[in-house]
Predict the 3D structure of the following.
Amino acid sequence: MPCASASLAVWSAAWLACAAAADDVLDALAPWSEAHDVVAADAATAAVTDLPTPDRAGAGLAALLVLARQRSVPTGPDARLVMPVAGDVRGLPGPAELRTAAMAAGECAVLAGPALAAVPAPVADGVLRWTVHLVDDVPPSAHPSLPDAEHDLRSSVRDAADTLAAMDVAKPRAGVREEIADSLRRRPRPTWPTGTPGRPLRVLQHADEVEAILVAASGDEPGGAVSASAALARTDALRPLATAVRAARVAAVAETVRALTAA
């Protein structure tokens, strides 16, 4: 899925750069959930941030924005999207508790200037909880530039299609186009700050489309027509494409943050 952490990273960077109002940030997170709350990861973090601990009712998103402003540094806003998976935690700082939570969620917004990271997870129907961690030194992002990520995504689509065709597991099934279109319609439609460049928006849209195709391609025929070995080979063939989707999203968010905070 396109992720809420991308919206938080971009809009919080715009807020810290005085390129967006607080209400704009709150409105931009609305497509992801009817309600959001914010808690500290543990008692030590709560003592530093004044956020409630996870066993208490969460604060509003505005509390996270105020905290980020209070802890921001003169070097300027620096926010990033991290989408860690097993074997790939590029750009994700410590502590270990943050790494574990971000891996479980598959996403995280890192606010390097304020030395904070927020991991989203649904906790009730219509409620998305952001758990805030204090971070150690933020490592450099090792993801490709936006042009390279866009090229890799397109190349990965072609390579996956060729591999699946060679394995004879790429036969179209009835209704797959409708399935993909429905998947795209049901996704949240995030908004982006004024001044967001067109190229990262195009890459984000392409990543959404490719991911919808990935989900459809990973599904089995009714009745389990694909053998276990063929299903495993298909998963292996699609894995580089999933990696390219993540890298494209991370690069698009990084370029958007750079453009919005350059002034």
Summary: The chain has two domains: 4-140, 146-250. The CA atoms of residues 114 and 202 lie 29 Å apart.
